[in-house]
Design goal:
Elements (H helix, E strand, L loop, with lengths): L20 E2 L61 H7 L9 H7 L12 H18 L7 E2 L35 H11 L9 H4 L1 H14 L8 H6 L4 H13 L5 H17 L11
Antiparallel strand pairs: 1-2
């Protein structure tokens, strides 16, 4: 894990701060945590965060022993293109909090996710989302931000609704580490959940956690020019999902090691899903 500090982005982007996180329940960690400073990398590059030295790689590797073709015959009952067996293969060391059932339950919030276009495009989008999530959380190991000293930083008191859950209540949580009071409000408003007053739901309810990540994926452009969902279904490619999630730090040569780790995750995951990665993998 690398260190970095999150900064407030403009209201127009409504980008989520990504922060180093810790397990909400005991789990087998596959990365080393450095508590000093702020974080970059495994638990997530923040939109607009300051970079630090990158070394090593993030995320838990998928098992190479499993059959690539297993997945097409083992889809979820509701038609989701990722089966539970494939999900387990992608994240063998994940925190028990990040359940497959929670992910499947969250899909109803954004039915277009991994359900738009051809079968190949659907699988590519699912792989792209999970590859980025895996990178941000060290292979779905980390649930909440590690550096508790940063917690009070994520309250923008100038917002008219303030920070009703407390100044230190809006730290990074979930698969894409939702942070800042204004992002909890925006995500909650979109999802019909009062996350401004109840931000802890994101670390207590797996489906809510997954919904916040899908909210960003499907509705937010971050430092990019399109949402990650648009990038995958419109043919712009996996590289544009990186740009929308952390392009200001990683793309255009900013952090090639982190970009390559995301690409490696994606290439493993499309293989598990029995499809091809497509073009434009980098940014």
């Amino acid at each position: 894990m690398r260190s970095r500090g999150a900064v407030l982005l403009g209201a127009a982007t409504m980008a989520m701060g990504i922060a180093l996180a810790v397990p909400a329940a005991p789990a087998v960690a596959t990365t080393t945590i450095k508590s000093a400073g702020a974080v970059v990398g495994c638990a997530g590059p923040s939109r607009g965060a300051m970079p630090s030295t990158v070394n090593g790689s993030c995320g838990a590797p998928a098992s190479a022993a499993s059959s690539v073709s297993q997945g097409r015959a083992d889809e979820a009952a509701d038609g989701f293109v990722v089966s539970e067996a494939q999900f387990n293969q992608m994240f063998p060391n994940r925190n028990p909090f990040y359940t497959y059932s929670g992910l499947v339950a969250a899909l109803s919030a954004y039915p277009e996710f991994a359900n738009t276009g051809s079968d190949t495009v659907k699988r590519q989008e699912a792989a792209a989302f999970l590859a980025n999530v895996g990178h941000e959380t060290g292979g779905l190991v980390y649930v909440v931000e590690q550096d508790t000293g940063n917690y009070p930083h994520y309250c923008d008191a100038t917002r008219p609704y303030g920070c009703p859950a407390g100044q230190a209540a809006y730290y990074g949580r979930g698969p894409l580490q939702l942070s800042w009071n204004f992002n909890y409000k925006a995500a909650g408003d979109a999802l019909g959940i009062d996350l401004l007053n109840n931000p802890y739901l994101v670390e207590q309810d797996p489906a809510v956690a997954w919904k916040t990540a899908l909210w960003y994926w499907n509705t937010q452009t971050g430092p990019g020019t399109m949402t990650p969902h648009q990038a995958m279904v419109g043919g712009a490619g996996f590289g544009e999902t990186i740009r929308s999630i952390n392009g200001s730090l990683e793309c255009n040569g900013g952090n090639p090691g982190q970009v390559q780790n995301r690409i490696d995750n994606y290439q493993r995951f499309v293989q598990i899903l029995g499809t091809v990665p497509g073009d434009h993998l980098s940014c």
